[in-house]
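Translate sequence into structure tokens.
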Amino acid sequence: MPEKRPSKEPNQYLKYSQLGLQLFVTIGICGWLGYKMDEWWNDGRSLFVILMVLVGATGAIYQLYRSLPKD
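Result follows.
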């Protein structure tokens, strides 16, 4: 009976769930920072929230694109 060798590659489910979590956390932290910036400058608009969410989403999607297989 052949032995099963442990796979050297990480489980694909773990890899992709980590990417989704990273996307969610990055956008969330950037949105929170934008909210705090809006509170600090208190100009009555949500300019920094929108700006930081867009920056976070762009960065997270770029990181997702870089980590996907190039097949």
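Note: The chain has two helices and no strands.
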